[in-house]
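Q: What would this complex look like in 3D?
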Amino acid sequence: MRLKTFPQVMLTLALLIFAARAQAVLEIEITQGVEGALPIAVVPFALEPGEVRPPEDIAAIVESDLHSSGLFNPVDERRFPQRPAVAADINFQLWRNQGIETIVIGSLDAVAEGRYNVQFQLFDAIYGRQLIGYSIPTTRADLRRAAHKISDLIFEELTGKRGVFSTRVAYISTQTAGGGKERYVLQIADYDGHNPRTIFASNRPLMSPAWSPDGKRIAYVSFESERPEIYIQEIAGGRRTLAAGPTRLNSAPAWSPDGERMALTRSENGNPDIYILDLTSNTLTRLTDYSSIDTEPVWMPDGQSLVFTSDRTGRPQLYRISASGGNPERLTFYGDYNADANVSPDGQQIAMVHSEGRSFQIAVQDLDTGQVRVLTDGALDESPSFAPNGTMMMYGTTHDGRAVLAAVSEDGQVHQRLRLQEGAVREPVWGPFPEEP
Amino acid sequence: MTKCKLFAAILVAATTVLTGCASRGTVETAPEDAYGAEPGEGGETTGLEAQDQFQLDPLQDPDSPLAKRIIYFDYDSDQVKADSLKTINAHGQYLANNSNHLVRLEGHADERGSREYNLALGERRAQSVRRLLQLQGVLDDQIEIISYGEELPAAPGHEEPSWTLNRRVEIVYGSGYSSSQ
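A: Here is my prediction, written as structure tokens for the whole assembly.
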């Protein structure tokens, strides 16, 4: 058996000091899948005889991950012709007879108290050969993390794209506290909604979370001082600082790709404009100066220009401006409302809140061709955020009158809803890839 | 308060005559500038508990145009509608004549569209009301503007009847700021 070993350090969980584990967990519900998703069999991972059943079902997590991508269709266990624990036991002909061409097997070995070695292998049943195989040392607390890593490795092997199953998402949730008062909570969870952790909570509104490019800090808008202000908070440790000095309105933080600057909206005299804050020198430079709303700046991946929303022609539309200033160029012409841009990681597509009349959907515009595709069909969809591999995006929508998170594949083929058990969730922001070991 | 009849003759500065409840049989006449006024040296006060002493303030008069504190807007618009001008002008005149009074204009938007754009839109709405107050002679320092965007809706629904109520600027006097919490 050919196995590669990952360094232990990779799977060491950075504990969040502010971790107040919420009970509510997001669950993924695929509302529309794609035709021709690849069937894949994930055989339940074998345990050593007499081994205590671990708290997580690795195979089930891998199945759920691959399914959520919309590109894979996990095969029901009842269709498995056998349950091999090791490669030598696999009879590929039996699997081919079932039309199953891709098989994952694995095992979980307890090596010490609370420590495991998770092994898995991915097989191509057509040719009867192993595609990849790894051994991952992990701990009891990190089993979910190990499972997501396995999903990432399988996804990358089979699609050529890096998986996002080890990424996290930040979002705002509101819960009704005692006396009917709303409580606003900034949370970070695994991309699948597990392990939600409270980063900051307030009885005044919170909005516009934004990850630093290294995933170590998060900026957000808080009304705790009555006026909207941007705070930057370290995720581990919780230290927070006010990003821009007091004014009437500071909002819409957006980190530059190098993490050294932050674009934001600032209003000195009731006229919101885009500014760039140098995070090292703490100097603020005005980027736009127009007697209309300029807001929602986002950086292009090369850091050379930004896209923002402006109603300078009467209705909100998207514009692009050089990071060094100058005249903005209008980007959107289709629809009477285009706002809240989010740029794909390759810089080719812009996702936005789009309306042609009464309802608001998520649309994507190709920057080269100008072609616009409407990807969702909600009435009040908002806050699109691309996954770091560009294959999917999350957004906020309403379902049964409640604010929920949803995801759609970049091609609009796969739709899923992420349901919190209670409260309302909105403004999802997909975090960056975790750092490589 | 509820059992008391309030006959308020509101002039530019408040001169209000209060008829107390019959059980008290007390009539008080306010001096022209009653705010925070201490009882005069030669006077003698009797009987009333602190909460029974009426603040002789047109801001407290439900029949005053100043009782209207919410200005409504059309969708994606920061233009003040004609039917709001009377209310805004009344507040403008009152504030111009009471330059020690401060006011906060809290802009709001309905939930449609993007949140940050709505935050900016709420601020533009507050700014529109401020300009009209300033035309009445209200000083810059008397007015603070803020926006909550769509974050604090007045009505919870997801249809036009709620949206109509949520596209608004709230005029908040003095230290009673923060309609929020």
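A: To summarize the key features: Chain B is about 25% helix and 15% strand. The first helix of chain B runs from residue 85 to 97.
Q: Very helpful, thank you.
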